[in-house]
Amino acid sequence: MLISVSGIGPKAALSILSTLTPEDVALAVGSGDYKTITRANGVGPKIAQRVVLELKDKFKSMGAPSDLPVGKGIAPSAAGNASAAINALMVLGCQPSEAAQLVAKLDATLPTEEIIRLALVEMAKGI
User: Fold this and answer.
1) Rounded CA gap, 112 and 54, in Å?
2) In 3D, which of 110, 31, 35 has the Cα closest to residue 64?
3) What is the pLDDT along the chain (127 residues), one digit of tens a residue?
4) Which residues are within 8 A (CB) of 114 and not within 5 positions of it... i.e. 6 or more apart?
5) Spatial CA neighbour of 114 closest among 90, 78, 70
6) pTM value?
7) Contact between residue 59 and residue 5 where contact means Cβ atoms under 8 Å apart
8) How far apart are CA 77 and CA 87, in angstroms?
9) CATH number assigned to the domain with residue range 73-127, chosen from the 4 options 1.10.150, 1.10.357, 1.10.8, 1.20.930
10) Class in CATH terms, 1-64
């Protein structure tokens, strides 16, 4: 699926998959967290945004869940923190797209609780 994105060849796809697990890529795409994908060598923000944009629809058409469960005993990744924060914001009444935009502005390596707090502060500024 990665090489179907324009601008991503086999070398970039291997770089992404050597840095992130397929589950991490799916979580990043599902939550709109392009910053996680930029951790791969040779993948900048523009390419990462294109990956998220082009694969998001493909994942939805496959019926893939936007938030995959994190395995037991494994610390949640940054994408998992962002995904959990998005889910929490949706429970609090945010629209999925609004929640994803709020979380995308923040550092996904922060703890989930901090991401939620900062997203709520950002949302309050917009009111």
Assistant:
1) 26
2) 31
3) 888 888 888 898 889 988 988 878 888 888 888 899 999 998 999 999 999 998 887 776 655 444 444 433 334 466 678 888 888 887 777 888 888 888 888 888 888 888 888 988 888 887 6
4) none
5) 78
6) 0.49
7) no
8) 15
9) 1.10.8
10) mainly alpha
